[in-house]
Structures
1.
Amino acid sequence: MSTLPESVLTLALTLTLVTEVIAHSPIDYLRDVKPILKERCYACHGALKQESGLRLDTGNAIRRGGDGGSIVDVEAAEISSLIARISSHDESERMPPEGEPLSAVQIETLRNWIGQGAISPDNEQPEPDPDQHWAFQPPTRSDLPANVDSDTSRNPIDAFIDAKLHEHGLTAQSDAPKQVLLRRLYLDLIGLPPTRKELHDCLNDDSPAAYETVVDRLLNDPRYGERWARHWMDIWRYSDWYGRRYVPDVWNSAPQVWRWRDWIVRSLNEDHGYDRMLREMLAADEICPEDDSAAVATGYLIRNWYALNPNDWMRSTVEHTGKAFLGLTFNCAHCHDHKYDPILQDDYFRLRAFFEPIDIRQDRVPGEADPGPFQEYDYGVLRKIQRLGAVRIYDKKPDAPTWFYTGGDERRRVTERGSISPGVPEFLTASAPKVTAVELPTRAWYPGLRPALHDALLAEAGTAIVQAEKELVTVSQTKNEVPTATLEQLAQAEAAFRAATEDAEKSGQPGAIDGRQSLILDATTGRRTVLNGIQQLTALEHGTTLSFELLILNDEHFNFQLAKDVKKGLTASYIGFKSGRIVSYQPGTFTEFETGRYDFAAGQKRFQVSLLFETQTDRCLLTVGSATGEMVLVDRVPVALNGWNPVGDPTKAISFECRTGSVAVVDDVTITAPVQTEAAIENEAARLVTFNFEAPTYAEGRDIDGIEGWSISSFSAAPATSVVSSTAGNESLRSLLTQVQTAQRAVDSVHLPVRAATAKLAAARAEVMSLDARIAADRSKYGETPDTDFAELARAASRFERDAIVLKAEADVLIHELALSAAEAVPMDDAERPKKIEAANKLLAVSRPVLDKARVASNDSTIEYSPFSPTYPKTSTGRRTVLAEWITARENPLTARVAVNHIWARHFHSPLVSTVTDFGRSGALPSHPELLDWLAVEFMENDWSMKHLHRLIVTSAAYRRVSSVGTNASGGTKAIESDRENKLLWRMNIGRMEAEVVRDSVLYTAGKLDLTMGGQPLENSEALTTFRRSLYYSVYPEEGGKSALGELFDAPDAMECYRRTRSIVPQQALALTNSDFVHEQNAAVTVVLMSETDTATENNSKPFITAAFETILSRPPSEAELQLCCEAIESQRELLAKTETADPNIRVLESVVRAILNHNDFITIR
Amino acid sequence: MGMGFTGLALGAMLAEEKIARAADRQPAATTHFPGRAKSVIWIFLSGGYSHVETFDPKPALNRYAGMTFDKTPFDNPVDSPLHKKRFRSVAADEINVRDVYPTIYPMQVRWRKHGNSGIEMTDWWPHLATQIDDLCFVRNMWTTDNDHAAENQIHTGRHRLDEQQPSIGAWADYGLGTLNENLPKFAVLGGPTRSDTRLSIDSLYLGPQHSGVPLALDPKNPLPFGQRNAKQSLEEQRQEYELIGKLNALSAVEYPEDQELLARIRAYELAFRMQAAVPEAIDFSTETEDTTKRYGIDNDVTKLAGQRLLAARRLVERGVRFVQVFPSPYGVWDSHQKLKENHTKLCASVDLPVAGLMQDLKQRGLLDETLVVFCTEFGRTPGLERRAGGTDGRDHHPNGFTIWMAGAGLKKGYVHGATDELGYHALGEGHYVTDMHATVLHLLGLDNRLLEVPGRKRLEIDHGQVIHDILS
């Protein structure tokens, strides 16, 4: 940043003063020097690393120097290389190489220390070997300390804790009262307070095992899984999808990730081992590849997904796998070797390499619609919110390279290092784990083979048959005779049409403009664009001609295009007929210009259009002739070609289009090879491509979609059509034909209901046949029925499937025809009638070509049939299995300790190791190392059972103590003085309800909490008006990602929340006193309490108040509290007596209930 | 301010300092050295205003209009290593490379020198121009995100791809003590209106108590749950709070060492008072017509910005430490097309209100203790943006842009730093966005480096360097 004279001056001045002060005061190595070195130098010159053979972690080592010799010269401090290097102005020379240079004061301190003889204590110990760091040694059970106080020590936990207390001369507090313990236990284990009845039962139960009974009951309560799932969701960064919610556009996580949440709840309730849970989260797809219920555990990895940048996905995964499972800050080694732990920058990338091949797939869930394959990343396309299906991880790219890069910037790849192989830090493992590929069972890489899916599909199809049968019975019972008048109408219409046809033929005005049939594009409403990729064309030579006949019936906007990219809707060349103007692009541009005009009103409607391709000059010559008067409207005008050449290029095509309001007829589309003479043009052999729209290829009245390479572009809008017609060119014929069709529909409509129902039933039955056949073929194909003939089964499957598709399409057409006739039967004066007819027409227009295509496909000789799902790679790299095994190995020193610490932290509101994500050398030391290790071993030896650990912890005496300080003989006064923060656990810590517990408890005490489990997330904006458990409302790290209460009560940050914050802000008070939510719940609980106590009379409110305390705070009130509440009630009643208030009594009681809810003892866990 | 609303005799039971100690987990709320400013009004214009058409006029753009960079006598700025250094896409670079538009687009507005200082500014700021001798410009700012997450970056100091950090307002909130117990220390007006920009006011690991509190300009409902429930009268509610206070006071006797209980008692007292204090702070009914006119509240063009800026003044007057104002809707300054039309309109919407704010602060003697910051997320390209056939706009430009500050502790009528002749690169080292943070905190009496949170190591880049040259 800019250098400034003033500041330099100030600096110089400061330096002078400092120098004088320091020079005159003796430097103390331990006090003044060592902290500087430790902070800035040890990372490279200490126990972790000895760059240039130099260590600076003892005075001896400093005096000894490094590979470059001595670094301090007590005779000449100024020229000591230590001083020279730290005060160098050359950045490449200066130490330390990263960060700010040492300050003037620090440099001066070191200089003077050297000058004063570089003295240090003799007995100074060097930094211990990092590999010997406590957390890197496998935990072992130490012997339990001798029971110091057998009265208070209930289990091994107490032995360790009491020993420490004893050591410090402290006495533990006594057990908390029953009601305090009960509430503590309920909120801890199931996240809800005890009911009044449960409270009374507990207070009345004096049996010795009463407490343990409650513990067991709560651990077996399904609400336990929900409560503790939320804890683990904090640690594992659960988040619903986010990115750009307001668009919406899914960038991070996935809309289906909630299945992972349900898996967590289920796994906890079933007490799956923590090791098993971790293994499934990292590698369920490899470890139990056919277990769909476990596969969703990989939601852990999916949550980190980031659509825009795969590197970011990997970065989050590495960082949080390190922090959450291992308590290691791998993220620090992203840019350089770790400054405190022996994690090399290489290790960072080696860890990443385990995850490099992954991608996400989306499996159909039996019983749900098929979500299709997972949406591939495309920069320009929004990512849809797909709620169906189960997302899961699989190894998609076994050979994906892991590049080493520097400075944390993926653009700075060190490609010459090649791809980094997966591996784990050396200091944590005796031998590098070996990765072997996992052969997946077929049902894993082809999920369409799963019996559960087959069963669901067949069940669904079976239900459809039953329904169709019922429907058929119903419609068959109604009368179905065609009225005579209707039949007569039809006969008349048919006769009229016949007569007109004969007349037309006689008078030389046939219905088609060339041959017997033409293509008619009718965009009276909507828009129609037809495309043809003309694959018959093998070369586009200079001199090739394209021509077609055109008749415009409604002159709005018809155009012909040479499409450059049909998918993107790009045009290379264009001829538009726009209300009398013929327009095209200037050669070499996309600039429109007028090439000629026509007079539609004067009858210029029929045209011959031809384009002569001059590929060498990238243009065409456009000629348009008018059939009326044989005029040439456009004569060989050069227009753009823009590189158009469809040969072998699927993106290019020709297209005809009618925009809304246009009707046009096209015929005899011909491409002719370059020819020398006019005569040769008539030569059939020169014709390369012809579309004449004649039977039998093109059937009268059918859309051309699907025939001879024609297709409908996505720019089309129903109900416009592109139908082949023999009446297209003759308006009166067309109108007569329409009359015939309408009359026919009227006749048909009588039988339509039965025909439609029959067709539906046939389709439903065919679907079952099709499913059966496809399943049989699939099972044969994938070796599940070895003695079968796959080819034959495939042929059958193909046949049955295509039959079923035809029948389904037939049924659909009939259903839509029925809808149309119903719409046409609506009385003429009904304003909705045109809309209904248009809607029905639209659907019909869509379903007819589907049927046509299905029929065409039905005649293919194929033996292909549709698979039930996509297929995925048959092998997985096995990398994540190895990682998961290594993390959960008995020998891994960190995993169990980290987990135990998290669990402990949530029972005691404070962890044993305060840096829960950092067990490395810069992390905190455990307050009770032996206890932590004992619990870690106990955990592992009991199959990593969390319920076992919970039971052990909550039944300890340490857990049962009062949280108050106490002042009497209990020794509280002494303890508070020597251990204010309760590190030694002489009392219980005070807890605070998490945001979810606040909301759930308010609802629960009001009797309103809906305990339905699992399923799609609910929008958190509805969390104050709907009453499921808070766990089930959406969370994500964006604005709106927390509910209104969550926002105030420290709901987790979905980016990172290894520990919750516990804030106290006035807005919390406002929410709990002002919100409609609280007022409504208060009203509800007040009603219940009034009915329960039945004594809320003017004079005696005590039973009501007592019940309110017991319900909300799980304890009876003290005398003083009763007194305060009674006085408040009295005072409020007086207040309301002065006003006209409906139900003043209820209003007063609601207020006192609300005050009790706002009591510190509600949100607090004593 | 300060004492209990209910007349509770809490003082008898609880020593006041115990409560204070429990207030929250921030360090002793005393400044590291005497601050020059008590409060900050941080005005952010979302979308990226064109530096060359506002506060950093570039005649060379007119001289070489229509030419590409390589045809001018200057070094081609795209070839400078600075180009890559200060320019980082969110999407992996193989997927998304933002084009650089090399054809010079002339300035869309004239400019002239103003005031005694003779500082150049464009004609779109007639009212602000009258205040120019009080402003202090920094013309060599740069950032690294070339997309709108730069909006977060200028507030947090971090690129979207990096681990996120608390916003500048949150740090001020964290480091400073309160001047008014009835109001939040960090208030936000007019934003952030989009889900992904909340980071601009977020406190992240500092804890939610340090996040910006968005206030609606509706005195009836300025903050969530901030209004007494319709079913209750004030007196009823007062009695209810009194009962809560008394019940908790009883607990406090039983648990004298429970710091959180003491803090909660205080929070309830504050909550009750906030219900009145916050609406009062944003209620303009006591302002004179002169004042509201000065902010342009009588005119639809300037009303929105005017109301927010007047509210900002009322808040700092009442002791709020950091007011973050979004005077324009989200992203509106983003002028990929129709820059002239867009900037003409937008400058008109903020010019008068901002000038009014300056005058008002001066008149009330508040400018001596208030720091006004006026900024945007990045500048706009000297080249004409041609995307989608564009003919009249400029693209995002992280390599150089201008902000200004004014008020407590700053030089007046001063320009610091510059961009090159084409307005492309910030010259010299320039100033990354955290230099603004360091300067703002410095003026508040805080040293960015001393605001450390255990276990949260911040990087060098997060601290920034105080821009000493602009200090008075």
2.
Amino acid sequence: MSYDLFLGCVIPARLPFLEASSRKVFQKLEIALHDVDGFSCCPDPTGIELLSHDAWLLLGARNLSLCNGNGGVVSLCSGCVETLKAVNYCLNKYPNQKAKINEMLKDSGHEYEGNVGVKHFAQVLYENIDKIKENVTRPLTGLKVAVHYGCHYLRPAEIIDWDDPFEPVTLDKIVEAIGAESIQYDLKMECCGNPVAKSDKDLSTSMIAQKLSSIQESGANCVAVVCPACFQQFDFNQKEVNKRDNTNFEFPIFYLSELVGLSFGFEPAELGLNFHGVKTSSLIESIQPSTS
Amino acid sequence: MLILVLNYDFRNQMIGETASLSSCYQCATCSGACPVALLTNGKFNPRKIIEEAILGLDGKLIDLQEPNAWLCSTCQKCVELCPQKVELTEVFTRIKNESFIKGKAPEAFLAQASSVFENGIAIPYSKPINQRREKLGLPAIKTADAQEIQALLKSVNFDSNLQKKGE
Amino acid sequence: MMVQMESNSKQALVIGGGVAGIQAALDLANMGIKVHLVEKKPSIGGRMAQLDKTFPTNDCSICILAPKLSECSRHPNITIHSFSDVQSIQGTTGNFTVDILKHARYVKEDVCINCGVCAAKCPTRVDDEFDRYLRKRNAIYMYYLQGVPAVMTIDKDRCLYLTKGACRLCEKNCDKEAIDFEQQDEIITLDDIGAIIVATGYDLYEDIYPLTRYGYKKHRNVVSAIEFERMLCASGPQEGHVKRLSDGKEPDKIGFLQCIGSRNARDKEYCSSVCCMYTTKEAMIAHEHNNELESYVFYIDLRAGGKGFEKFLTRGEEEYNIKYIKSKISEIQVDAEENPIITYEDLESNEIKQMKLDLVVLATCIIPSRDGEDLADKLGIELEENKFIKTNAFFSAETSKEGVFTCGCAHEPMDIPRSVAEASAAAARAAEVIRGAV
């Protein structure tokens, strides 16, 4: 099994440790991730798309045209997945737009054919959940995970076409497959608020604050995410919330690939867990006491 | 005195070929479910944005940004729940695109856009990051040729719109 | 009043013993035509028997229905086949042959006097379907108090004798020896049917589809409209004293949510037609039971298109403390005391508000009877895209097959007066076929 790998902008250039854990996990699962030269920004569905739909279609189609149809393209970022899926959806549904885009791509020698499937890395993990279970050597018993699905992993359901838009199960099942406990909490399906930060930082802080509050009430001891925007919002901005609201949130935030990696027996340092904003070491130590 | 003009061209532009904007029956499911509407006590209001789009009130939406479409968190709850399948975020995107053309996009968006225009990607690779990547055993990434991306973006007037600020 | 028919005349088959089927049967019977009325439940009466009151007069529903039930059972021209299904239909207009499967009820219909001693002795308790699972019945039971035929029925899946070979207390205690565990299902062939009327009524959205965003079946203080109807009814599970299912307290603030499942491009796209009116009715009756009650109706549009209907809504506002709020609700949360909380936009002030309620009633969409597709197949009639029976645009009694007619909610969502009117129309058309065109 192999896929083209779309890394996007944020993970490789700002959070490379998330890329590291993902590559290691996929390697263990014997799923090849093929690097492709020449990708641009996907473009960001919470950024560029809002400025110019045409630019978004153009660059998105170009990115897809670079993929070799290796089995499709996998992305580590929910935003990139949404863009690539939505571009496919749009150009598939409106052939006149597809023709127009291809006309514009001609000069740079690209052609969008519309035959590249797009998957979120968590989808691939879920599809290989049995293999994951086989590879678990250190089940994460003791981790009470507040799973945060985020928004672009699920919706709009017609475009994403994966898990249930309001009652999803895939990430909970993966968390359980690696021995951790998935904790229900009231605001589980709410947005982290990252996209609003570019317009109103305070509003964005309020959105993450209410999520953290709900997570605290639930008794969870960490959060799992599958999107770098959500990751940054949770990992970097807990201190913003604490500063503004006089709270003391300190939840370790994990990318799903990091949790899977830990359960496979990779050491925290190998996975780059020391690069997180909120320290993860004491929680991990409590569930996987190091022998050294 | 505030005079609002129903701009039929703007209205038709918002309706476009898709997004079923004109199917909206103003039931307020969207505003009732919107997390930002709740937090701003209705100051951001998806139903109102759609109402104004249907009425072609570009004076309110683009010039005054009331409500401010840029506050949408793109969570897509409204789209998923709308009983008439109005693609609200698609309509908001059209409004924001129009805003961009008129030089009214918020600064943070322009900054990201500039980076993509200059570099082809939103965040250029710094030396420390490349070193960290190496330490983590990650391959060097070869991203798009910036000039190629610039040419493509120029073909949709991206750069000229980027220059307009608060016209 | 009764017309004598030649003994070799064709007969009519009415499928469905709700108010529409009953009216059609009575009309035909009074014209001198023999009618076979088939009903899948143990008693005829249908949905109307479950209602407390009917709009816009707020008359007692069973009071209006019961005389018709009696008339049906005593009419010499009507044979009621209760607890029965249509198995197969062959033939063409004027000449149908129909097989009816009569399920065994293990009680002799001509002997049972409905004294109820058997039920009093029966040790098994089962959730009562007629009362929407809000109370228990026994394995031997009357479908509902005023049901016709007025005989008991044994639920073969819950009866201790029929499932495990034990008990038999009903049999031991029946003075009339009406219990017959040897009874079998039987096929009754009717080979002289001239015309068929389909009056199979409706099912409810919540019977088939989950309503998870509304917490239905999860939050105890969220109920459906038909459940609330049973709660309001004096002969219902709460004897007319409405009590919250979580703590037994009387609700003082009720939210009625309209368009649950209906008028939704992602769900049922049509309007369920009767809900705006029945919700107002329910709020009115509830207010009569409790003068402190505040009712809030959350709607998209208010549909009140009949005579006196608009006035009905106004009366609700002026006399029964009902507030109509234009804002459709898509989800319900609850607080620690199981009080439902809804978030909505107040369209007057454009503020987003949250309202805490004691009880929420969901006005759920009317959907075609769940056996409808199977029956349509057997009959060879077409269904439209929402699976209601496809009818002629101008002559709505006509289905796509000659000699087969329809009326009531099998055709589309409609209220009782309209169902009855359509029933008479279908009966007239059926009579035309049976008497032969002149």
3.
Amino acid sequence: METQNNGFCYADMYLRISREDGDKTESDSIANQREQILAFLKERPEMILRSVRVDDGYSGVNFERPAFIAMMEAVKNKEISCIIVKDFSRLGRNFIETSRYIQRIFPCLGVRFISINDNYDSIQPKTSSDNLVVPVKNLMNDAYCRDISIKIRSNFITKRKNGQCVAAFVVFGYLKDPKDRHKLIVDEFAASIVQDIFKQKLEGWSAQAIADRLNEEAVLSPLEYKRWCGSNYASTFKRNAKARWTAVSILRILKNPVYIGILEQGKSTTPNYKVKKRFDVPKEKWICVPNSHEAIISRETFENVAKILLSDTRTSPWEDMVFPLSGLIFCGDCGRSMVRKNNAGSGKPYYYYICSGYKNKAGCHSSHSIRAAHLEQAVLAALQQHIRGILNIEHTLNAIDHLPYAGRQIQKTDQRLKAKHREIEQYRDYQLRLHEDYVDGILSRADYISFGARYTEKIEEAQRAVYKLEQEIEQLTAGYSEEQQWISDFKRHQTISELNRKLVIELIGKVLVFEHQNIQIQFQFQDQYEHAFEWIRCLPVAPKKLSNRDVC
Amino acid sequence: MEDFAFTKVDFEALKQVDVRTVDRDTLVDIGTLKIDGNLPREERLKEFVRQVKNPYCFKVGKIAVSVSFSDDEVSFEQRMEHYLQTL
């Protein structure tokens, strides 16, 4: 299209406002900008207005603005030959980029640029003062952004140091307090899922197995849960129609100290207000505030899980969980881990552990081979007799009696069941609306069928989860759950009958294997013999001392 | 049982026994211990030490086992209680 004809030219007016930049809402309002430019055009009949380009809510720090990009397309396509703005700051507040557009890009593209309030028109002859004033004005506009950026950054730092959460979206397990948006409060429903994830990890489940189980139970992943709660959260990493639990999301939860009440903020930042790319901040510079909110995981559990995550374990392809002692058995001589092997070739197959340093010829002189069954039996017998002999069993049985276990579990499962029912209702509601849209002709038949099938699939998935949860509640009420069985066994025998991963992690730090079937078990609790015997020793002595003093 | 002179047990010396060099025949098999669960805790503790002879070094079948404890202030009961809370 011819943009300049017989003295006429086609022009676009460009309007922009952003509160973040400190624009004055009154004088910089879109309506005000439009009015000023229209008044300017009225006096210039040779200029024909083609489009009004509006970027409402876009910062002038960069040029990634939809209306501006569209306008530049129009310039390149020769649809317009003139751009009119109220003042330079509407075009941009980035000194370097704005100057580049005014002095290089617009002249190169042959487009005329008019800034009304600055009395600037690119086709007018430039005076020497113009050459000085234009850059200075752009520099001043830039200073606004710089100033606001500094103020906001320092405000964020203060808030972070005070333990106030400044994140736009909060982590799974917490909600923003409706009374104070910088405070985190526990989201009971999501917190119970987080607690289960930690529990399953302690029981020996791998992160992938936990994720698979949650997906099987149709538990909403953090992203889906946020959206289900009505949050506007979106992620560029989302690939599937419904985001699912993954090993990565499980590990992210297991490693996040937010669950023990520590608020870690300032983990990534931008180099300055002009660059939007985020960079990771070194860990020592993070702002960490302990006890800033209620913990949903105990410190001991968090530390036990951290210990497991550091250990080198592998789940057998035929098992769901790791073996009870996985990652805890080390060679007593070279310190390397012991690996589990199977001599499947022999007539009587059995499992055994050997030193990985010896197996990989990495310096250990002996295999330190020990049968898995013998080793596990030795650890079990040691634990059983220590529980019988030195544990204050009355204290432990008392703790069991005060466990709100069954009630708490039933409540948790019931909560999940209700949430699933709500989810089903919601999907049915969507299906109904879909049908209405189809009847009204808003939706094509193909779309109606495809969307409908998607919701049917979601409903079926939720119904399967409902069935599972109902079964779980039945088991809990009848006292048949694994944990309830363990408690009743423990009460009956006053010791344990088998090794379980969670108890091993709680009580044992390491098991060292020496040559010739010698092992050392490193318990994770203090030596009680000396304390106890000190106390017992005092019993006959104390009255004697007292009587001596009486004589004196 | 009454004859057991628990006050004379030298725990420091027992702790020094090295599982790598100890004569396995001198060790007690911990599986053979018979401790009456109805006894009060102190009595059970005394019985445990009396029967096992060295609570830091014993055997289970063919395996010689030594045990060590942590230096932190967490007790066996606290660990068990925490385990129960995570059930």
4.
Amino acid sequence: MSNAVIRIINIAKEFSETPGPRARDEGDFSGEAFLEEVLRPAFIQATKDGGVLTIDLDGSEGYATSFLESAFGGLAREFDPAEILKVITFKSDDEPYLVDEIKGYITDARKK
Amino acid sequence: MNRPRTVPYLVGGAIIVVFCLLFRAAERGLHGFSINHAIDPVGLATLGVNIFIAFFLQYYFATRITDDRAEKDILIDTVRDAFSMLRTCRDEVSGCGTSKIAAEKQKKIISLYRALSNGLENVETAVEMSRCKELRKDFDSIRESFFKYKAAATGKFPYDASDISYQAQTYRALNQQLQSLAFKLNQYR
């Protein structure tokens, strides 16, 4: 049996039900704040533990492209996108297209 | 308007009556009619095939055509819903112009794109379950266009002139792809 540590982050419960814009100076609950306060530390911890990080996107009022790109694209600019996709899994029953959208931001983050 | 259900029975009854009269006339040799009592296997087989085709066409093809049309109507209805959501998104976004957009309005825009995303997902799921599942491959480009359109509308607030131009381009692209899908669904065989 696998002993991989699985951590689940529900953005609506652990960050905000109303995720905001791209950067901190543009408004509350930005993608930048989510990356720095929640996503990056959890990703580093999951990598250290050899575990899996599940991002649960359900329960919020919706995500702007700017929030998603800033958070997940931002993570992919700091770490290897392939490693990110290996460690992080996504769950979105409310809006299934979000998963493909986020994976697109992760893989395209370094192309610009 | 629906045809009365009794019509086929009346026509069938009339045909039987005509045949009975013809056989009666042939048996009696009236009006130059005659009847050959020898059984012709080829004629009999032809009759059997004709009857089979008549029933096959009526019960198989007619039913299938009706089912296909009903299925396409359901699919086209879901595409129509997606069109309606797409137009709502366009109207909301185009009403913003280059002025500052209040937080409430931003939330509304984001939730409209979420509804559109789910509308497109509904169409994709319905197509996958239908006989038109071959059209599933069209959704790769539809999804791509949707992501671009969403990025144009929710990537940054407030908008500038180039954002508005990009929104118009990406809206047109997504709209065209949905129209193309609707036409393909309608003509699918």
